[in-house]
Amino acid sequence: MQARRLPASRGWAWIVEGFALFRRNPPLITFLVIAYWFLLAAIGVFPLVGQVAASLAMPALSVGVANGCRAIDRGERGGFDLIFSGFRLNLPSLLRLGAIYLLATLTVFGLSTLVDGGLLWQTMMKGQKVSLETFAESNLIAALELVLVLFMPVMLAYWFAPLLAAWAEMPAGKALFFSFFACMTNWRPFLVYGVGVMLISAVVPGIILGAAAAASESAISLLSVVVLLALVFVFLPTLFASFYTSARDIFVEFAPTPPRPDRAE
Fold it and tell me: Is residue 1 included in any domain, yes or no?
């Protein structure tokens, strides 16, 4: 499996190409993304067992969304049943990835208890509400910062791992290694990609809503709904499509056509 080293500009291109892919078949990608979140939420409703099952199923369901993006990219006809297609591709490795992700998440949040005495664990894992007084007197911010730092390697190792396990038939450990290596090699485009996602999902909507609130209080409610719908039904599917376009760009074997030489450093 060959991972290409790409220039920083490709990070923004992943978002643009993800949106172009979304525009080719909005109903299919939107359905797959919503079905992905709905199924994980439905499985996770059951205490403890459901959360474990959701973590185990997450890699296979994410591959189902990617399979839909790949079908659109190849000009193939894809159906809504693609959401379950990941369960037919190297399922043992995908289940192991889900288990490793769950253990890594529990480990990271468990370490945060050393900073805040378990407050973040109670908040994130058990849904416990935190009062303003408790928040002000706790080390919750420091614990959150620790989690973000410790969770970054987990995210890098997991980013491409489900696709490598499903499409390249890699075992879980090898898929995690190749994913981490590919992300670290391409840290520049990933940095641009992260900034772009932040701008589109948070900064720009905040500016729009802030300007609307200053101009007219009556328009803010309607505009809030419009922005929310745009984020859910346009940006979120585009974001999932960009996961696929980043994998297609970095791994030569995933590209439907040979990449252009001028796109690599």
Answer: no
